[in-house]
Each structure stands twice: as C-alpha cells, then as structure tokens.
From TrEMBL:
It is found in: Cell membrane. It comes from Curvibacter cyanobacteriorum. This is Branched-chain amino acid ABC transporter permease. Belongs to the binding-protein-dependent transport system permease family. LivHM subfamily. It is a multi-pass membrane protein. Its main location: membrane. Pfam families: BPD_transp_2. InterPro entries: ABC_transp_permease, BCAA_transport_permease. Keywords: Amino-acid transport, Cell membrane, Membrane, Transmembrane, Transmembrane helix, Transport. The keyword Transport applies. It comes from the Bacteria. The chain crosses the membrane at residues 15-36, 41-60, 66-91, 103-128, 148-167, 188-217, 229-258, 265-284. The keyword Calcium does not apply.
Length: 294
C-alpha cells in the first residue's frame, strides 16, 4: 500500500521517528517552560544539562557497571542537585534584572560545562547500549516497532503529563504559580518561597537530564550533543508560548511529527521546517499558540 507514492511501512517509520524526536522536544521544552514560566529565566544551559544526563549515565554504566534503570533515576537527581547549586550561587542574583542577563549567564555556563566534558572525552561519540529488556522490535503487521523507541515515547508522555498535572491541578502547583506572582503573600502563609524557587529550577534541569538518558541510545553521546537540539527546542517553546506547560508538550510532539513527515516528502526542508513554522506563528500570534497575550 502506498500513500502519495510512499509505502505504508516507510510512512509509519517516519511517523515513529517523528514521535521519538517530538518526545525529546516535548520534555526538553517542558523543562524550559517550567523554568521560564515560574522563574522568568531563559535557561540557555538546558542543552548542556541534557548532555550531562546522557554522559553521566554512560559513566555510571561504563565505570561502575550501574544498570540503565538505576541511572534513569540517578542521573536526573545528580543533575537536578547541580541545578540547585547553580540557582543558589548564581541565578538568584539576577531574577529582578532583564532577561538578557539570565540568557548570558546560562550561555556562559553552557560553554563551561561543554568545555569541561570535551576536554576529558573529546568530541567523538561514546558507545551506549540499549538496555537488554528493550532490545529488539515488535511486529505490528504493517511495520516493525523498535521496543526502545516505543519506550521513549511512552516514558516522555507520562513524565510530561504528570508534570503538567502537578503544576496545573495540585495545591503545590498553585503555590508555585502564586510564589512567582506575589512571593510576599505566599510567604505570609508560612511557605519558604526561595527554597521553592530553587527546587523548581532543580526539577526543570532534572527533566533535561531525564531526556538525555532517554536520548543516549538513539542520539550519539558527545559533549556537544545538546547544541543543535537546544536551538530547535527554543523554537518549540516560542511556538507553543513562553511559559505554557501544555503548549510545550503538544507543540513538541506535533512538530516532531511534522518534521518526520517532511523528511518523507521534502527531505531538504526537514531541518528548517520548525523555524518556518515559528516565523508563521509569530506573525499571526506573537505570544505563541498557547501563550497569553499581554
């Protein structure tokens, strides 16, 4: 069976590839949206922290023989703790300044982090095996579904929806949102707003590390693996609406699928289609698809 001259298995393979890429876009843009929406900081270090999650997992599996499943939890926790240090030592001093200061500070952190790992591991790819439980593929009849890629999509969607639920539908999320808008009022209820802000940044970068662990068996692990991806992810956040949690999730998944289909019908445009969509959206709706007009 063919659709517009493309066989169904090829079409479904590109759909799956788009979903996998879209999952990475969704979870990374979600972390950016959490940090910007609640802390008002443009975190350009997100790509470097994504890379840290992948390389820390590689280090744990290679040097200490720690299983992938343990590192899936440990790497985000370690990177999240590193994020807490960043927030306490650096970011807390620039919250009341222009966005440009946060952007420049986190860009500098990116260069430092990537430079440190590159001095140790160079720029060549590091071997990273798929966990034994997820090796192989499942025959769906019309296509072979790689088990690991299916796991990436499911895990990303579950984490994204859980994060959205906590922020938008729970009392903790209400405190977080209120703490960014009127911290003195929230502190009057006995809530430690500075600690809450610190943990929010740590959680946001932990999401980036979680995406790095998921991406490592799919994307070659190098100290520079976050550079190209983070540019696309920023475009996703802008299209969805800066600070919009659900906007980041839906836009990330949707643009991943669009990018995958573009590779089938017009491969030359696959690397730019996201940015073309961004320009069109900003012309029509400057606040993004799900952003709030001021």
């Amino acid at each position: 069976m063919e659709i517009f001259g493309v066989s169904l298995p090829a079409m479904m393979s590109q759909l799956l590839l788009g979903l996998v890429n879209g999952s990475f876009y969704a979870i990374l843009s979600l972390g950016l949206a959490v940090i910007f929406g609640l802390l008002n900081v443009i975190n350009f270090a997100h790509g470097a922290l994504f890379m840290m999650g992948a390389i820390l997992t590689w280090m744990g599996m290679t040097y200490f023989n720690i299983s992938y499943w343990v590192m899936l939890i440990a790497a985000p926790v370690i990177v999240g703790a590193f994020g807490v240090l960043i927030e306490r030592l650096l970011l807390r001093w620039i919250y009341k300044l222009d966005h440009l200061y946060g952007l420049l500070l986190t860009l500098g952190l990116t260069l430092l982090i990537e430079g440190a790992f590159r001095s140790v591991y160079g720029v060549s790819g590091l071997g990273y095996d798929t966990p034994d439980q997820l090796v192989g593929a499942t025959n769906l009849g019309f296509m072979m579904l790689p088990n690991y890629r299916a796991w990436v999509v499911v895990a990303s969607v579950v984490v994204c929806i859980a994060t959205w639920f906590v922020i938008e539908k729970t009392r903790l999320g209400a405190y977080l949102r209120a703490g960014t808008e009127n911290p003195r009022l929230v502190e009057a209820f006995g809530i430690n707003v500075p600690l809450m802000v610190t943990l929010t940044y740590g959680f946001g970068v932990a999401l980036a590390a979680f995406a790095g662990v998921l991406a490592a068996p799919v994307i070659q692990v190098t100290p520079l693996m976050g550079q190209n991806l983070i540019i696309v992810v920023f475009a996703v956040v802008v299209i969805g609406g800066m600070g919009s949690i659900m906007g980041s999730i839906l836009t990330g998944l949707g643009l991943g699928i669009i990018e995958g289909f573009t590779k089938v019908f017009y491969p030359e445009a696959s690397s730019t289609v996201v940015f073309v969509i961004m320009v069109i959206v900003l012309l029509i709706r400057p606040a993004g698809l799900f952003g709030k007009e001021k």
